[in-house]
Amino acid sequence: MGQCVTKCKNPSSSLGSKSGDKDPGSKSHHKKVGGGGCKEEPGPVCGKSTGDLLANGTKTTEAMAETPVIATLSADPRKDDLLANGEDFSLLHIEELFSRYKDELDDAILEEGMENFCNDLCVDPAEFRVLLLAWKFQAATMCKFTRKEFVEGCKALKADSLEGICSRFPCLLLEARAEDKFKDLYRFTFQFGLDSEEGQRSLHRDIAIALWRLVFTQDAPYILECWLDFLTENPSGVKGISRDTWNMFLNFTQVIGPDLSNYSEDEAWPSLFDTFVEWEVERRKKEEEGRCSQSPSTETEDNRGGGGHQTGVTTD
Question: Where in the sequence is the signal peptide annotated (predicted)?
C-alpha cells in the first residue's frame, strides 16, 4: 500500500508506527476478549420488615410479610447484543470501534483514521498483516474502510476490539498459506490496488511491483526477484500491468522451473512473459560468461607456478 498497504501513491515509503518500540507480537495483543467486557448486574434483593422495639424492650408484632423490592433493571444493550447474535463479540462494540477512527465528514475510515488504526494495532501500515486485514474486510478502495466493510470484516474475524483483531493475526497468516486462500488473496490484491474512483483497469507498474513484493511476503517464489528486476529495468517499456498478466503470473510461478527451461512460447502466456524469459536467459548467459572470463586459465596458473614450461627459446 504505498505510504501504507492502503495508499500506493508512493510504494517505497511507509507511514511507520507512532507506537515505536511496541512489539506487535507481544502477548498483550493476543489476549482474547470474551463477551465484550460485559459484567453481570447484581440481581434484585428482597427484604423483610421488622417490628419496632418498644421502650420497655418488648417488640411489637412482627410483620413477617415480605416486602418485594421492585428493581429498576438498567438493561445493558451490549449484553443483550451478545445474547442476540449468539457470538463472543458485540456489534455495538464494533460500531464504537469504527466511530473511533471514522472521518468527521465521511461515514468511513480514511487515510488519517487508517494510520491511527494501524498505530493502535501496533502494525506497520505497509506490512503484510494490514493487507490481510483489508482482504478480510473486502475493502474496495485503498486507504478506506466503509462502515459496512469494517463491521462485516470484524464479524468475519469475530473480533470487536483492538485486542481481538490483534489476536486473529496468527490465524490470518496461517490461512493465507493455504493454496486456495492465497489465490483468493492474490486476486483481491490486484483489485485492491486499482483506483476505483478513476475507473482504472490496470495497475501502474511501480504499484504492481510494490504489491507483488507485499502479497508474496510469506512464500516468495524463486523467480519473483528476477521478474521484478525485469519490470524495474523495463526493457519492454511496460507502463501498466493488466489483470490477466497479474493472474497468470501466479500460474507462471507454479509451473515454470527455476531455470526456465520448460517455458514454451507456444503456450497461452502473455507476451510480456515471452519478453521476460528472453531477457532473463540472456542476462544469465552474460553473467556466466563474465564469471568464466574472470577465472584464470589452466595455462596461466601453470605459468604462475613455474611448471617447467619452456619458452621456446633455444641456446647454442
Answer: none
